[in-house]
Amino acid sequence: MTEREAYRILGLSPGADGAELKRTYRRLMMQAHPDAGKDAVPDRARELNLAYAVLKGAAVPGKKAPSRASAERDPDPQKNAGWDAPLNPNAYAGREILCYAEDQDGAPLGSFPIAKGKYLWRVEEDFPLFLLSIYRCSREILDEADAALNRVSPPSREGIHAQLAYLLAQQFIDGTALLPRLAKKCPPDRSGEPVFCLSAMLEPSGAPAVFSEEEPLYPSALRRHRLYVKQKSGKEAGYLSFPDDRLYYVVVPLLEQRRVRIRIQAASDPSGPKNRGRNRGQRLNVWLKWADGHNALPPENLNLQIEELLALYRDTPRAPREPF
């Protein structure tokens, strides 16, 4: 698809800014919603989405918009199904790509799927909708397990659901590609390796820790997908809190998989310790660099972990049925 065709499909004049592009795209996608009534055209969503992807790609410096040949002859059928993100063919299951539907005034009507497949998440996809797609995918997997055993949901389902969703999310998040986009790039180290900088807060897990500014901190443990840190004395100080929720799903898995090395240091606070709120955490500076021999691909053992989790779920005793 050419840029000219994309502008025609969206009814925009060449050179329309990003805000107008996004507003028009959402309005037209709302009309293509399956619940929009007799005027809804199911195949229209794919055409609108491809046109939107072409124009968004053209707005990124150095990024070439897909040609007609690449759009029509792509050998991968999933990429012609309404979304153009890269794939993880080894993912345990496919997920939905969801899009917001809005009315003419911009009020949200909900969300609906425009594609389904083993698509990796990219920053252009709304992150709350990505998490919703993972929640739905994991729910479907557990529903299939329950149906195969002809049972009602066992008591442990909620906890298993959360663990399964976390494992599935890792299969669709390419931390190696996303960390450079979500973090600030710092000067390389002495060996020339790239270093990425993040800001974080130290949330005390008990009594507030007392330490001086610029004091180094050390990773203590990863528990329940949180990174706990300790002081030089060995006393646990609390856990890291990121201002951007997306970083939890990028940084923590990279640490769990030992694909990055980390350095943490308390940041100087311009307000001073006397003006710091009693319950306010300490600001931290975090530096990350790739570990030696890190793999650029999602770990293959995630499917094994998912299978083990589902085996545990299938072995869970049946929940008691209500008496007739």
From TrEMBL:
Domain J: start-end pairs: 5-70
Domain of life: Bacteria
Region Disordered, residue ranges: 63-87
GO biological process assignments: DNA replication
PROSITE patterns per the UniProt record, alphabetical: DNAJ_2
Pfam families registered for this protein in UniProt: DnaJ (PF00226)
Keyword Endoplasmic reticulum among record annotations: no
UniProt key word tRNA-binding: no
Keywords recorded for this protein, A-Z: DNA replication
Protein name: DnaJ domain-containing protein
Protein species of origin: Candidatus Eisenbergiella merdigallinarum
